[in-house]
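DM between two lab members

TW: hey, do you still have the ABC-type transport auxiliary lipoprotein component entry open?
JB: yeah, one sec
JB: this one, 212 aa:
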Amino acid sequence: MHRLLFRSLIPVACAAVLAGCAGGKEPSFYTLQAPTEAAITPAVRAASVLVVPGPVRVPDALDKPEVVVLSGAQQVIPLPTDLWRSQFGEEVKTAVLGTVLADSRIAQAPAGGYAQGNAIPQYALHLGVDRMDIALGQYARLDATWSLQRLPAGMAGAPTVCRASWQREVPGSSVQDAVAVHQALMQEWGLRIRRQLLGQSGQISGISGCGG
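TW: and the structure you got?
JB:
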């Protein structure tokens, strides 16, 4: 009886050892901001358009410190040692705004937000992530919603609400490979918003309502 009990405990002990080894792995940190993006906000006095960013809406399943991937059964799994560099919503905001503000004609409004009496057109921007899939070695998908409203609100018409979806193949099987694809998708999102801002403010022509 004791021999049988000892044998039954061996697999449990081995599993515990493996789990302990995995738990000792050093964490890796990732960002959605592409390495080439400028992190400097252009001077307000040189800009033709000001953007006032609001909070970012993200699904509860993604609002975690861990990078979340899809399993084979389409279930979401947080990876305990693969972490975002900052809070997930902030990662999205920094990545998208980094592309929007890379054009010197656009600047982020001062910390106080909307400045009454400023002659520069000002727009409130709200970002939302509806879906963000990471299927390692397969694909990356981003479904996004955003809105732009000329300020002051209520005096310049209703906000323009836009939606877009992107999906790209992930060329490798690592988390870094998938994150690199999502960095490119965040840039595409930011480019759409940049074109929309410049079109609505009259800086460029031939741009449809949502920057397409």
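TW: got it. The chain has one domain: 33-200. The radius of gyration is 22 Å.
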